[in-house]
């Protein structure tokens, strides 16, 4: 697992609040893939 310094969902949360008066109370962002070494095994 890799933690991101900035959450790419933050801007979307602000847009939802401003345009739809929707308050996000939580979220999860999951991205799946292979590291450099594993890419060779799975290609």
Which properties best describe this structure?
43 residues; mainly alpha; 2 helices; 42% helix; 0% strand; elongated
Which helices and strands occur, and which strands form pairs?
Elements: H1 10-20, H2 36-42
General description of the model:
The structure is a single chain. With 43 residues, the protein is an all-alpha fold. The protein has one domain. It contains 2 helices and no strands. The longest helix has 11 residues, at 10-20. The model has no long low-confidence stretch (mean pLDDT 88).
Summarize the structure.
With 43 residues, the chain is mainly alpha-helical. Helices cover 42% and strands 0% of the residues. The radius of gyration is 16 Å and the shape is elongated.
Structure annotation, total helices? 2
* General form: elongated
User: What is the end-to-end distance?
Assistant: 22 Å
How many distinct domains?
1
Mean of all residue-level pLDDT scores: 88
Low-confidence parts = none
The major sheet is characterized as:
none
